[in-house]
């Protein structure tokens, strides 16, 4: 009798063991997949939050060099930097791929003397706002209107679609990676609005191409801001608002408060144009993010989730969310989309 019940039990055990083992294996696998996926997400966040190569103010580190070196002086730049080819040009600067001690660097030079003031303001901002959000400064020469920065071979954000369509990077052309770029972009706006020196507005932004041309795409697919020439300071508590230039702005890319409010019959006069604040940058976030998200599998789903926050960005200035609120929302949506895209797979597996 005892033997019989033992036989039954061991029979049941034998029957149960393979499915239990299989289930355990599946759970283990699911955990592994989840860990892998989430560690990837957090790796990107971590990578974006730590500055492993940062040097103290006035110093820089280049490539594999271990030491922090002082910013190059006029003499060093004139002696040691060799121009190779023109890689970009805007209204204020001509930018040359150049060589310094066998390293590729970017040398920016003033295009015309009338814009000296903008050039020097951009340089001051570059010096003051050095951080992971801003292109690395290697040296400058005020007398000769030259600035030396880190060279980014992918160039400005305008090149994003071309780069991601190259066979080499096609696999990186995902909604996930593109959403990370949008998060990078909003992080930069957040940094400019909350910098140690106060609230700055990115004024060189009258149309989408213009905005994109002020940012660079790094080889590790991050975004840094490069052109800080038109960066006025807002100080609301002191009642100090700004205007982006002295000319009339037009079109529906700029925020409504940047447009001439007195109709076509009254000619534009800078002195009558009301000033505004950093909320113009918030108005432009949905358009820039839409470009960054592109047209890949899943980017429309991201757009759907961003709908409410993007509607809020297009409200009147006082009703728009802060960059911090947009950033928090973007991060929450990314985390929930990652969870959603992992969970159905794990359910299928079970
Ligand atoms: N460090 C860099 N690496 C690669 N390309 C750059 C770099 N800096 C600028 N460029 C290119 O030069 C263009 C013009 O630079 P920018 O600083 O915006 O000049 P401007 O002040 O005249 O608008 C950029 O849009 C980009 O294409
Ligand atoms: Mg520019």
Q: In total, how many beta strands?
A: 11
Strand order of the largest sheet: 3-4-5-7-6
Hetero groups in this structure are: adenosine-5'-diphosphate, magnesium ion
Indicate the radius of gyration in whole angstroms.
Answer: 26 Å
Q: What share of residues is helical?
A: 40-55%
Low-confidence stretches: 34-50
> What fraction of residues sit in β-strands?
5-15%
Number of helices: 9
Structure, described:
This protein is 44% helix and 14% strand. It is an alpha+beta fold and 350 residues long. It has a five-stranded antiparallel β-sheet with strand order 3-4-5-7-6. The chain has a two-stranded antiparallel sheet with strand order 1-2. A two-stranded antiparallel ribbon has the order 8-11. A hairpin with a 5-residue loop joins strand 9 and strand 10. Helix 8 (299-313) packs antiparallel against helix 9 (323-349). The longest helix is centred in the first third of the chain and has 48 residues, at 2-49. The radius of gyration is 26 Å and the shape is globular. 28% of the residues are buried. Mean pLDDT is 89; it is low at 34-50. Adenosine-5'-diphosphate (ADP) binds next to strand 3, strand 4, strand 5 and strand 7.
Structural features:
about 350 residues, alpha+beta, 9 helices, binds adenosine-5'-diphosphate, five-stranded antiparallel β-sheet, binds magnesium ion
């Amino acid at each position: 009798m005892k033997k019989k019940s033992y036989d039954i039990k061991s029979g049941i055990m034998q029957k149960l063991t393979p499915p239990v083992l299989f289930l355990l294996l599946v759970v283990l696998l699911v955990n592994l997949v989840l860990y892998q996926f989430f560690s990837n997400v957090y790796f990107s966040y971590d990578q974006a939050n730590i500055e492993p190569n940062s040097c103290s103010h006035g110093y820089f580190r280049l490539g594999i060099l271990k030491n922090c070196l002082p910013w190059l002086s006029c003499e060093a730049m004139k002696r040691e930097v060799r121009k190779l080819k023109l890689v970009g040009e805007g209204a204020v600067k001509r930018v040359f791929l150049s060589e310094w001690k066998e390293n590729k660097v970017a040398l920016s030079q003033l295009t015309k003397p009338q814009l000296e003031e903008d050039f020097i303001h951009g340089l001051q901002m570059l010096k003051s706002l050095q951080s992971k959000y801003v292109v690395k400064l290697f040296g400058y020469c005020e007398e000769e209107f030259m600035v030396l920065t880190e060279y980014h071979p992918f160039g400005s954000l305008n090149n994003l679609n071309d780069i991601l369509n190259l066979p080499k990077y096609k696999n990186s052309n995902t909604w996930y990676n593109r959403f990370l770029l949008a998060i990078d972009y909003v992080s930069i706006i957040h940094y400019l609005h909350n910098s140690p020196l106060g609230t700055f507005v990115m004024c060189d932004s009258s149309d989408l191409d213009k905005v994109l041309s002020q940012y660079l795409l790094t080889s590790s697919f991050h975004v840094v801001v490069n052109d800080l020439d038109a960066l006025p300071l807002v100080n609301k508590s002191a009642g100090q608002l700004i205007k982006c230039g002295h000319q009339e702005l037009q079109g529906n890319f700029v925020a409504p408060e940047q447009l001439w409010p007195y109709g076509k019959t009254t000619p534009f006069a800078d002195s009558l144009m009301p000033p505004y604040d950093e909320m113009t940058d918030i108005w432009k976030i949905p358009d820039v993010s839409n470009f960054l998200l592109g047209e890949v599998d899943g980017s429309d789903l991201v757009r759907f989730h961003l709908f409410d926050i993007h509607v809020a960005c297009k409200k009147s200035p006082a009703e728009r969310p802060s960059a911090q609120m947009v950033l928090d929302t973007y991060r929450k949506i990314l985390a929930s989309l990652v969870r959603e895209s992992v969970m159905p797979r794990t359910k299928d597996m079970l």
